[in-house]
Amino acid sequence: MTRIELLQGTLDLLILQTLRFGPQHGYGIAQLLRGRSSGVLQVDTGSLYPALHRLTRHGFVAAEWTISERRQRVRTYRLTPAGKKQLTAERARWDDLSFAIASVLRGPDVERKR
After folding, report:
1. Contacts of 64 (CB under 8 A, 6+ apart)
2. What sign results for the dihedral spanned by CA atoms 29, 98, 83, 57?
3. Rounded to whole angstroms, how far apart are CA atoms 75 and 29?
């Protein structure tokens, strides 16, 4: 399968959406993204962890050390109230962007329905 590059900022949206379903460690986030996208979205650690650190610095995600099912120490991330607001805002921007791109691809006869 051809690797698809994510638009800048899209990874943050996907991480926030994934954490909406509950706390998760980094590997779990990557697995959920891969699974829910039927393998299309494969996020490497070189992209995932910097994004998680950035989201944590901005207060959208909180992190704590926990013990995994395999008795390993892992950093677990959860969505904060500020992160929930950010997710709502980013989803609205994504909807606008998706509609705009689809409109260009379909041609001039498409009207926006909201």
Report:
1. 75, 76, 78
2. positive
3. 12
Contact 68, 25 (CB under 8 A): yes
Summarised one tens digit per residue, pLDDT across range 9-26 is 799 999 999 999 999 999
The residue to which tokens 């995932």 are assigned: 48
Are 44 and 114 contacting, i.e. CB atoms less than 8 angstroms apart? Answer: no
> Domain containing 51 — which CATH number?
1.10.10.10
Rounded to the nearest integer, the mean pLDDT of the chain is: 89
pTM assigned to the model: 0.85
23, 83 contact by CB (below 8 A): no
What's the number of domains the chain is made of?
1
Measured CA to CA, the distance from residue 82 to residue 92 in angstroms comes to 16
Residue range of the domain that includes 26: 10-105
